[in-house]
Amino acid sequence: MKERILKEYFSIPNLMGYFRILLIPVYLFLYIRAETTEEYYVAAVVLLISFLTDLFDGKIARRFNMVTEFGKILDPVADKLTQGAMAVSFSYKYPAMGILLLVFLGKECLMGMLGLYMMKKDYRMDGAQKHGKVCTAVLDLVMILILILPGMSVMAVNLLAGIAIAVMLVSLALYLRMYWCVWNRMKAGKLKRETEDIPGREAGKKEKEKEKKRNEEESKKKGRRSRMWKIVLAVLIILVIAFVVLVPYIKQPEITEETKKQFHVEKFYGEHPSGERAKILPKNGEALEERIRMISQAKEEIILSSYAMKADISGKQVLAALLDAADRGVKISIVTDGVPYVTSIWGNPYFLALAAQENVEIKIYNPLRFWQPWKLMGRLHDKYLVIDQSMYILGGRNTYDFFLGDQPGYKNYDWDMLVCVPEDRKDTSLQQVRAYFESVWELSDCKKYGESFIWKWNPSVKFAEEELHSRYKELAEEHPDWLTAKDYTEETVEVKKMTLLSNPIHVYAKEPVVYYEMTELMKQADSKVLFHTPYIICNDWMMEQLTEVCEGEREVRMMTNSVANNGNPFGAMDYQRNRGKIIDTGVQIMEYDGGVSYHGKCFTIDDRLTGIGSFNWDMRSAYLDTELMLVADSEELTAQMNQAMAEYEEKSLKVVDEHSYDLKEGQEPEKLSDKKAFRIKVLDLFASWARFLM
């Protein structure tokens, strides 16, 4: 008796199974406490030992005749416990893995109950089904990838989790269908129980095999025709979707008579100081510092609009400052676009931690909804930060490392304007910005984020909240001056008039209001117009407007990225293709060639007006996106702006014609890499037709 128990329950393969189960809490302890890549790899080594044990226990059992009935149960139980432990551990870092864990537990519990029930009915399956094996393989692959790549982006983890969840649900549906068919056959008396008619079952199997061969032969004959129809159907579906996506945006609205009547150049100029003061934020480091300082000094309300936000170094610093403001009781409203919502925000524990606060509300402008493809192209491109009733920043910078802070790595150069307003005035530019925000906020296409119950219990959200609190403490220790109130009187200059230009805010093709008013304003210039844009992609009407701006004796100069320096491959492609047409408008082109992609969107007119905002000189900004440009009437501010813009122009190439430059001594144009040249050629060949979307 004792020998039988030892052989059944304590054989070497079974001891290896026990060992795998004992490794689970060790792995969980190491992974959940891990902070560095090396610590994550230590946890991975523990699982590697578990996987190797799983690999060899079966071989040993078969080789040395140690296969036991208990071992047949223990091995899959250890497998499922290990998979579940991995899902649990990942849910401490990635919220989406918490959803996967729930689906995994639900599937396994349901399968277990159904299996036990069918065993009671004397029915057993002949091993796992093919789709079940595929499901296990996909789940294991997803788990392994997330484990060995601890720096994987949230979007990649969400995608992998989504694939695994979809495969699990499909496998579960197929199992349920199989069990339903078996149940119906048993009910009808057509299925023999396991204990009945074994010889009959063997005969039935042979007949099944013959039928299977016949079916395979027939399916081979039909296979080619079926595949062809599937290909045709897939192509038709793609064409229909493309048609539905593109048609609403092909026709570009014209400027209405009402818009023309409402434009008056006088509204941009003032006779006396307005009480508002402004300063330019030309550097990424200063832009981050001022945002943190303003948030730290907020008393009542913070409004933040940004096309893109990420939880990188600067992004976490901004989120940490916002979380601290929420803890102080400040009301916080954030709106961002639906595309970066998918790539950076959905399922991100740091944003969910902020959204979980009672006085914080986050909305997504036009979330990507593929059942509404006719809305996909309309995007929110505004960037501003409003603090109480006293000050705001508006410009072209998104909220992550490319635009904020002095972190090493890739950067974009851009501009912001910081504006202080008298709190006792009601007719300020801040009220214009707040009114614009309210109109966007109330749109039916703006949806709340982070309210779902599936995030409430997730441990990764709690961990992220604790990390943000720690980061804010570190920020206070490393940069105490960032959290110190500042009197901006000495740093800012007086402004006679501040005017906000804005596009329509709906998600469909828009009337190009910002471009129209901006170019009409430029047409009124006496002597000089200077504007910077990362890229320029214009249709015929936009070219006509630019041509009219260049008429007369006034100097009109534009700086944009050279083809080699342009970070936007579509912008580089279109500029290379249409540079000659742009030159023909009469504008003097300066190509920024400083090695870092220039992202500035600004202009000055004569010595009075300065404009800064989010508008690129392309058809996307003109017709598809929400856009803002803030125009300030101030001679002193414009002088500062011209000087700051000149620093970039010093590094630019003066274009003589389509093929040559007037180079300064020592200047040499950046060479276009073979890789970039190939990419531009491919885009020119296949994507130039879609320039109305760029």
Name its key features.
single chain, about 700 residues, alpha/beta, nine-stranded mixed sheet, about 55% helix
What can you see in these coordinates?
This protein is an alpha/beta fold and 694 residues long. The chain is 53% helix and 14% strand. Strands 9-4-3-2-6-7-8-1-10 form a 9-stranded mixed beta sheet, sandwiched between helices. Strands 11-20-17-16-12-14-15-21-22 form a 9-stranded mixed beta sheet, with helices on both faces. Helix 5 runs parallel beside helix 7 and helix 10 runs parallel beside helix 11. The chain is elongated and about 105 Å long. The protein starts with a helix and ends in an 8-residue tail after the last helix. The model has no long low-confidence stretch (mean pLDDT 90).
Q: Helix amount, in percent?
A: 40-55%
Average pLDDT reading: 90
With strands numbered from the N-terminus, the spatial order across the biggest sheet is 9-4-3-2-6-7-8-1-10
Shape descriptor reads elongated
Main sheet attributes: strand count, strand direction, barrel closure: 9 strands, mixed
Topology:
Elements: H1 2-9, H2 12-33, H3 37-63, H4 69-91, H5 95-120, H6 130-148, H7 154-187, H8 198-250, H9 257-262, E1 277-281, H10 284-297, E2 301-306, H11 313-327, E3 331-337, H12 338-345, H13 349-355, E4 360-365, E5 379-380, E6 384-387, E7 391-395, E8 416-420, H14 429-441, E9 446-448, H15 453-456, H16 459-478, E10 493-494, E11 497-502, H17 513-523, E12 528-532, E13 536-537, H18 540-549, E14 555-561, H19 569-584, E15 588-592, E16 602-605, E17 609-613, E18 617-618, H20 619-624, E19 625-626, E20 628-633, H21 635-649, E21 652-657, E22 660-662, H22 674-686
Parallel strand pairs: 2-3, 3-4, 5-19, 12-14, 13-18, 14-15
Antiparallel strand pairs: 1-8, 1-10, 2-6, 4-9, 6-7, 7-8, 11-20, 12-16, 15-21, 16-17, 17-20, 21-22
Helix pairs in contact: 2-3, 2-4, 4-5, 4-6, 5-7, 6-7, 10-11, 11-13, 11-16, 13-16, 17-18, 19-22
